[in-house]
Design brief:
With 397 residues, the chain is of the alpha/beta class. It has two domains: 295 residues, Zn peptidases (Aminopeptidase, 3-Layer(aba) Sandwich); 94 residues, Roll (Urease, subunit C, domain 1), CATH 2.30.40. Helices cover 30% and strands 26% of the residues. It is built from eleven helices and 17 strands. It has an eight-stranded mixed sheet with strand order 1-2-4-3-5-9-7-8, with helices on both faces. Strand 11 and strand 12 form a beta hairpin. Helix 7 crosses helix 9. The chain is globular and about 70 Å long. The two termini are 30 Å apart. The structure holds zinc ion. Zinc ion (ZN) binds next to loops.
């Protein structure tokens, strides 16, 4: 089913959302449309600290309760975009997926809080308006948003729950040079890592997700460490028996807007809903999921090996350079570069690795750790052999 959905994606993508950071007015327009559509029930379940409405969108009338939320961290919007795609898909008809939609509608009730931390989304920060990381607030519930999420889930008592995030682009699959595009975690609900029925349900969905995407993302799928962290919602909800699966969108090469991962999220989630609606998830094992390597931080964007640090070329070292995301004066995401570290960088893999042994520096150019750059140049004789701005140009719009 995943493959069929993937091939059909362009026909159901919500084309009004083009970028990770989209406007609040567009979001409100979409919510309004879903509220008016007979297939959905949109209900206000509370407000953020700054008074933004937190909505639940419900689809389906079935006995199997599934919940999901996105953007608990305000600057992690990939899954929110995928949810908009899913709602667009669900409202389409007279195509090859009519019976698919009917099976979902009759068998499951899919409760979603999209864009949960709307204050953080508006300012494009991980934390809430109060500066609280919601995903470390599951027990104390200092933030109003955490209390709303916790009470909401307790009311639904879901059999499956999807906690949808973006993770740092520079996580690697284990210590390999492969960027972790998608990471999964069937969280543990206790300090012993017990495979409770709730965790097994989540693990089987994770196993299915892995099988669905390993062909298109070879060696690019990881799992998170399952060390118990009761401050996190994933672990807390697993302890309550909610079948919780964490799904993280990581990096995707030069696709910084993560168009490819948005598509994968939409198709993975629809396929997961279908497998739950038809009970086919029950035949999954945990084996492939359990074999996944964990996320590690062994990647940098660009690694220059043995590059000159000073203009007389007398001192050389490895230079690790990473993209840095900032919000520009128009509220758009803009990229520059930061020298993350220098010296012996042999523990890191560069997504781009360049042997700079023969490079010469440019007059007046200073290489400084933690300094932000838009341009760096090296040359060999008369020829420019490296320009940092060439790499900025590779970023896909
Ligand atoms: Zn997150």
């Amino acid at each position: 089913m995943y493959q069929r959905l993937s091939e059909y994606y362009e026909a159901f993508k919500e084309s009004r959302i083009k970028k990770r950071r989209f406007s609040e007015s567009l979001w409100n327009e979409l919510i309004q449309e879903w509220a008016e559509h007979p297939l959905f029930e949109v209900r206000e379940i509370g407000q953020t600290f700054e008074g933004r409405v937190i909505n639940q969108v419900r689809f389906g009338i079935g006995p199997m309760h599934i919940c999901a939320w996105s953007q608990m961290h305000g600057d992690e919007a990939t899954a929110t975009k995928a949810l908009a795609d899913i709602y667009h898909f669900l409202t389409q008809k007279k195509d090859q997926f009519d019976s698919f939609r009917e099976i979902l509608h009759q068998n499951i009730s899919f409760f979603v809080i999209p864009r949960l931390n709307a204050d953080g989304a508006a300012r494009w920060t991980r934390e809430t308006a109060l500066g609280i990381d919601m995903n470390r607030d599951a027990q104390t519930q200092y933030s109003p948003e955490a209390k709303i999420l916790s009470d909401w889930a307790d009311e639904i008592k879901p059999t499956f729950a999807f906690n949808l995030h973006d993770q740092n682009r520079l996580y690697s699959v284990g210590t390999s040079p492969h960027q972790s595009h998608i990471a999964l975690l069937a969280t543990t609900g206790d300090a012993h890592g017990t495979w409770t029925p709730s965790r097994i349900r989540a693990g089987k969905i994770a196993n299915r997700m892995y099988k669905n995407i390993t062909g298109e993302l070879p060696n690019q799928i990881a799992k998170w460490s399952d060390e118990y962290n009761p401050r996190a919602f994933g672990d807390t909800f697993q302890s309550r028996g909610y079948g919780l699966l964490l799904l993280e969108s990581g990096g995707a090469g030069w696709d910084l807007e993560k168009h490819s991962l948005r598509k994968i999220n939409a198709c993975l989630l629809l396929d997961a809903l279908y497998s739950i609606a038809t009970d086919s998830w029950k035949t999954e094992s945990l084996e492939l999921y359990q074999q996944l390597q964990t996320n590690e931080r062994c990647i940098v964007d660009i690694k220059l090996k043995n590059a000159p640090l000073q203009c007389d070329n007398s001192v050389r070292a490895d230079i690790a350079i990473n993209l840095k995301e900032q919000i520009d004066e128009h509220g758009e995401i803009a990229y520059s570069w930061i020298i993350e570290d220098l010296g012996d960088m042999s523990i890191y893999h560069g997504l781009t690795e360049i042997d700079a042994t023969t490079f010469e520096s440019v007059k007046g150019q200073k290489i400084e750790k933690e300094k932000i750059y838009t341009q760096l140049q090296f040359h060999e004789g008369e020829n420019i052999v490296f320009q940092l701005s060439d790499y900025t140009a590779k970023i896909q719009p």
